[in-house]
Structures are given as C-alpha cells and as structure tokens.
Amino acid sequence: MKPEQALEEARRRAAMQSGDEQIEGLTIEPTDRVGLEQLIEWAVAEPDPDKVRSTRALGAPITAIKRGMVHLTRQQTGDLIAQQARFNLHLLTRVAELEERIKRLEDTR
Amino acid sequence: MLSGAGPVDAVSRQALAFRERFRGWGWGGRDVAAFIDPRAKGFEPLRALDPAPGDRLLIHYSAYAPRLRGVLDLPNRKLLLSHNVTPARWLWDHDPPIALQCELGRRQLPEYAARCDVVAGVSLFNGSELGSDIVIPPIVDLAWVRHGGQPPQSHVLFVGRLAPHKRQDELIRAFALYRRRHAPDARLVLVGEPLNDGYLRALQELGDRAGNVVFEHTLNESELAERYARASAFVCLSEHEGFCIPLLEAFAAGVPVIARPAGGVPETAGDAALLDEDRDPSVTAELIHLAAGDRELRDELARRGRERLEVYRPERAAVALRAALERLS
To answer: For a designed S-S bond to B40, which of A26, A58, B5, B290 qualifies (C-beta 3.0 to 4.6 A apart)?
Structure first.
C-alpha cells in the first residue's frame, strides 16, 4: 500500500469495527474561555506540598529541608493565601454581578 | 542566551550543538542562561554575559524570559531564534505555574522579536508566527540511532514530554483499541519527562486500563536507541510542536511514523509520515495496524524518511545558522 492510501484505508477499516468502548480516565480539554465556576475554583490557591522538591543529585535531604520550611512558615503562607483568596472571591462576585446586570439590561432593550 | 538550561531539553541541546559549530568556525563566545538546572553542563549564569561592542547575540526563545529583558537594551546586534512556546490553554488545568509561564512567554515573544535585528524560527511555522521566513533548523546528530528493521513484536513508541498538549492520553486510547483488535501482546512505550507527578499518575492510571503501557524517562542515548530499534511504529498525536525532533530520530531508525498534522509537524515530516488528520482513536488504531504490518508501506515510509533526513542534514542546518548570523554583520 502507498502511504497516500493509508488514511483512507484506515478510515474504511475503522468504520467496519463496532462495539469498541473507549477506556475511561484522564480526559484533556484545552482551556479557552474560562467559566465563572472554574474561576471560583481557581480563586482559592491550594499549593501541593509534594511539588516542593529538589532536582539536584542527592536532593532528598534538600527536599526534606524545603518541605520542613514550608511547614514551619505555614502560618505566614496560610494568611497570605487567605488574603489573596478573599480578594479573588470578592472580585469574582463583582464580576458575576456585573455580568448579571449587563444581561438584564440587554434583555430589557 | 537561553531563559533556562536543562539536561535533556531540545533547546539546551541546540545551544550546545551551535557552540560546537561556532568553535569549528573559530568563533569565540559563551552560552549563558537565566536559570541553569544543576544537571545541565556547559552553561554560565546570565551575569557572566559581558559582550564586547562588536559581539553578536543569539537569543534562544522558548519560554518566558523576564531576566533576558536587560539584554535587549544592549547595543549589540541580536538574532532571536524562536523554538516556540506551548499555548497555555493546554496547561491551565494541569500545571498553573507552567501555564502562566507559557502565557507570559507567548505574550512577550513578539515584543522581543520586534527589538531584535534578525528573527528566525527552527521551522517556517515558528518563524511565520513572527512574520519571518528565516529558518534555522535544529542541528541534530543522529549517529546514535540504530536501524532496527522489522521488530518481532508490535511496539508502539512516542518520545516527548508527558504533557497535556502531547496527547499521550489519546495515544493510550488508540493503542487500547489496536491491542484489543489486532495485537494483544503489543506494547506502548512512552518516553518523556513528566510535567509533574500528578499528571504522571493520571496517565499511568489510564495506561493501566489499556494494559502494556510503559512509562520511561531520562534514558541515555543507547537506551533510547534500543527503544527506537524495537519500535514497529512511532505515533505522535501532539497538538503543538514547533519542530518535533523525535520525528527525525524515528526516520533515522527506519520506524514508520504516524503523526497529527499540528504546528510544525507537516513541515518536518514532509511526505515521510502518515498524517492522521482525523481525531478518531479508531482510525489511529487502524493506521498503527497498517504501519506495523504492511511491508510495502513500511519500506516506502522508510525510504521517504531517509530522504527527509537529507533535508535536515546537520551541514545544511549549519549553513542556515551561519547565514542568519552573518545577516547581523
């Protein structure tokens, strides 16, 4: 078979197959237009402590020290995250209100 | 200049390959990076950059590089080489910090390009995003790749970072169908550094459902050569590639290539790959079956792959590199 014929042949053969179920699990969708629900979910940052690590050779003790420091500074970072989340959520509430107001105005025109 | 230098990434390898050519031409200079992974060798910190008035600067652009901004103010003539930046839309859900870097990197790229004297891409796809038709293809040494011939068992291979835009998820689903319909003993080998641990776990779970899916990374050249030599098909369903060097590696190994025609892939592959423009895992599964089993198809793709490698011979790429740099004179 010539390479130019392969795709058409694959389509023909695929069309003859039936009852193939796709496996479930991870699905990927690109994020183009982020909805308000998604923004609200993102508004509260939840950093994963497992992502704190070292890529150096013999980095295990460095990773342990870094994670220890994260633990020791959790009051400070927790406060920082809370303040940022407060701002994010209030801002999103305002955006939602404005969207609703615009919609109402457009409907009454 | 690089924004970041790593041990295995394509951009750092290119910078080192360029350096070898510069040495061969009797040119001096140094390679600097704003961030250097401790495992990367051959790079100096950005602060080591101290160009003389007549020196020319080459900026490898592949990521958000705020620390390189100061370089733009230098009076030296500059060439920006775009390796492309992954669109953030693929990454927001899976790695927000990297998505942010990509978003900022793509926004910053036109500004950097506008402030450089010459702009080029590693492919026409990359260059044309910035309004340039100057191409400096990668200088790729493929001497380490071994020709495998027809492998006894069906091994499907993809080499590329385990990241959402590379679409290993779709490949796993297509492979599951291929295995169920045609080759229960088939194996899918995915070679690549994971984006992060969480993403790797999610892919591994999907792989467990498909069965016979192997994840590997940080292979040396000999190990990678062995994976290519055993492969009966190389499948790339990536949604975004600036160039895609693994296609050349597969051609060098004589492995039939199936690829989604996205980004720079059609340009790199030419007529030497089966371009899978459908988004149907069932069709991809049948293409894998054809590529693995049809002798005439395999031989023809191998022949065309060899021709493609002629286009991307390192000597030709070096000529393009030198010509682009001489435009700065």
So the answer is: B5
Residues 6+ apart with CB under 8 A from B249: B140, B142, B145, B159, B224, B228
Contact with chain B for residue A25, Cβ under 8 A: yes
Contact B233, B253 (CB under 8 A): no
Question: Is B21 in contact with B321 (CB distance < 8 Å)?
Answer: yes
Distance from CA of B3 to the nearest CA of A (A): 18
Instruction: Kindly determine whether residue B38 and residue A55, on different chains, have CB atoms separated by under 8 Å.
Output: yes
Closest-CA distance, A35 to chain B, in angstroms, reads 13
Output the pTM of the full model: 0.87
Chain B residues near residue A44 by CB distance under 8 angstroms: none
For residue A33 the two structure tokens come to: 């237009």
Please state the domain count of chain A. 1
Domain assignment of residue A8, yes or no: no
Using the Cβ of B227 and the Cβ atoms of chain A, whether some distance falls under 8 Å is answered with: no
What are the beta bridge partners of residue B194?
Answer: B162
**Contact check, Cβ <8 Å, B90/A28:** yes
Q: Chain A: give the shortest CA distance to residue B164, in Å.
A: 7
Residues of chain A with pLDDT under 50: none
CATH number of the domain located at residue range(s) B155-311 in this protein = 3.40.50.2000
| Rounded average pLDDT over B283-309 | 96
Domain over B2-139+314-326 is classified CATH 3.40.50:
yes
